[in-house]
């Protein structure tokens, strides 16, 4: 049964000048020096090990007679971890982005309905935006009794997301 290789970057380092082997994470100015390696076979057996990057290729070669296949998977996985990310919603992905959450439903798990008042929700959303949130997630649902959305447009000042799990929310006009 063929093995699948998965890598998770570990041991963040501030710069590439610290000695040893490091790689840039997603083409950013952040680097990692170790990986958690997970080898899985089709029968769900797995082997997990944490390794410095400069020991990764040798360890993989020792795991299988088909080390060429694992080496190709390793190179592909490392390329995925180190390649720059494309912008998303006009946001650069070379640094972390913060999303502010404004829930406007009475059954919200995170705030218990503290933002049911539209003025409070708007004030809180604007405060999050001014504090540096790149995206505002305005959590609201359609009121089935009135067939209208509780959330209207966010205006031009913010990038907003919407919940698209429910078909009625996907069809609704949110921001």
Task: Provide a quick synopsis of the model.
The chain has 175 residues and is an alpha/beta fold. It has helices at 53-63, 67-82, 118-130, 167-171; strands spanning 4-13, 23-24, 31-40, 46-52, 99-103, 135-139, 142-143, 148-149, 160-161. Helix 1 (53-63) packs antiparallel against helix 2.
As residue ranges, the low-confidence spans are 146-150
Structure annotation, total helices: 4
- What separation lies between the terminal Cα atoms? 48 Å
**What fraction, in percent, of the residue positions are helical?**
25-40%
Record the SSE blueprint:
Elements: E1 4-13, E2 23-24, E3 31-40, E4 46-52, H1 53-63, H2 67-82, E5 99-103, H3 118-130, E6 135-139, E7 142-143, E8 148-149, E9 160-161, H4 167-171
Parallel strand pairs: 5-6, 6-9
Antiparallel strand pairs: 1-3, 2-3, 3-4, 7-8
Structural features, described:
The chain is of the alpha/beta class and 175 residues long. The chain is built from four helices and nine strands, in the order ββββααβαββββα. The protein has helices at 53-63, 67-82, 118-130, 167-171; strands at 4-13, 23-24, 31-40, 46-52, 99-103, 135-139, 142-143, 148-149, 160-161. The strands form three sheets. Strands 1, 2, 3 and 4 form a four-stranded antiparallel sheet that branches. Strands 5-6-9 form a three-stranded parallel sheet, with helices on one face.
Which descriptors would you attach to this protein?
4 helices, alpha/beta, elongated, 175 residues, three-stranded parallel beta sheet, 9 strands
């Amino acid at each position: 049964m063929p093995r699948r290789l998965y890598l998770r970057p570990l041991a963040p380092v501030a710069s590439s000048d610290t000695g040893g082997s490091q790689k840039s994470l997603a083409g950013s100015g952040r680097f990692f020096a170790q990986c958690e390696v997970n080898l899985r076979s089709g029968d769900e057996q797995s082997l997990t090990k944490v390794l410095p990057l400069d020991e990764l290729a040798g360890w993989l070669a020792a795991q299988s007679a088909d080390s060429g296949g694992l080496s190709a998977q390793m190179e592909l996985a490392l390329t995925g971890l180190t390649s720059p990310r494309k912008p998303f919603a006009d946001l650069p992905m070379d640094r972390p982005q913060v999303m502010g959450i404004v829930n406007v439903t009475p059954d919200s798990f995170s705030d218990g309905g503290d933002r049911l008042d539209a003025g409070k929700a708007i004030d809180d959303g604007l405060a999050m935006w001014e504090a540096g949130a790149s995206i505002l997630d305005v959590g609201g649902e359609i009121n089935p009794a009135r067939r209208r959305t509780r959330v209207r447009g966010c205006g031009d000042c913010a990038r907003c997301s919407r919940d698209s799990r429910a078909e009625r929310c996907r069809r609704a006009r949110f921001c």
